[in-house]
Design brief:
It contains six helices and eleven strands. It has 229 residues and is an alpha+beta fold. The longest helix is centred in the middle third of the chain and has 14 residues. The termini are far apart.
């Protein structure tokens, strides 16, 4: 797969739909209606992150590797910086001292997907645990050789989204479980060091928004523009 600068910047139009989320602790499930939105075809790469921020935080180095070692705060700051770079309205109002973030739902800038958006996009109309055969769509513990891999080298899902499973976990916007974990945010998708059961569309992981981990990256989303008659 050619993942040059133009391809790295590709945003995929995700159609509306419904997804069912669940929480293992509370044994609760809930339905979420997902509006149409756009999602990046690839996780943000190290080269793209460096172009926007001037930084290369990742442990493993390579332009086409997903950026990792980035916190949730790093990811939302990247979204705002990229929005400003492209003349868009930043999606977030951030206070890093107080660790608070407000999402402006009317902004046209880049943002992190919600976990409902993420799962809906990952499934791409499928209903099983994965959108394809594991080894064909994901880098995981059984085939990664113990390392991260360039984006786009596995098969995409039916909507043209690559590396939704495996390689690096994706930060999502949502708080994981405020009652127990406070400000911890949701991670989705599984990573290069994970067993096969973690690389499934429904699996949830959590981390503190300031933690930087070597198997955690992110991809970016944009809300669909409102329909004008």
């Amino acid at each position: 797969m050619d993942t040059g600068t133009e391809a790295e910047n590709t945003m995929v139009a995700v159609p509306p739909g419904q997804v069912t989320l669940s929480d293992r602790r509370t044994q609760r499930g809930w339905h979420v209606e997902v509006a149409p939105f756009q999602l990046s075809a690839f996780p943000v790469t190290q080269s793209r992150y460096a172009r926007v921020t001037g930084r290369r935080p990742s442990g493993a180095r390579g332009d086409r590797l997903p950026v990792e070692g980035v916190s949730w705060w790093d990811a939302v700051q990247f979204c705002n910086a990229l929005s400003q770079r492209e003349g868009l309205t930043p999606a977030y109002r951030l206070d890093t001292t107080a660790e608070t973030a407000e999402w402006d739902g009317f902004a046209d800038g880049y943002r992190l997907p919600t976990e409902a958006e993420w799962e809906h996009a990952c499934r791409a109309g499928t209903t099983g645990p994965r959108y394809g055969r594991l080894d064909e769509v994901a880098w995981h513990q059984g085939n990664s050789g113990g390392r991260i891999h360039p984006v786009g080298d596995k098969q995409p899902n039916a909507w043209g989204l690559y590396d939704m499973l495996g390689n690096v976990w994706d930060w999502c916007w949502d708080v994981y479980d405020a009652e127990v974990y406070g400000t911890y945010r949701v991670l989705r998708g599984g990573g290069w060091a994970d067993e096969h059961w973690s690389c499934r569309a429904s699996v949830r992981r959590r981390s503190h928004p300031t933690f930087r981990i070597d198997d955690v990256g992110f991809r970016i989303a944009r809300s669909a523009p409102p329909h004008r008659p």
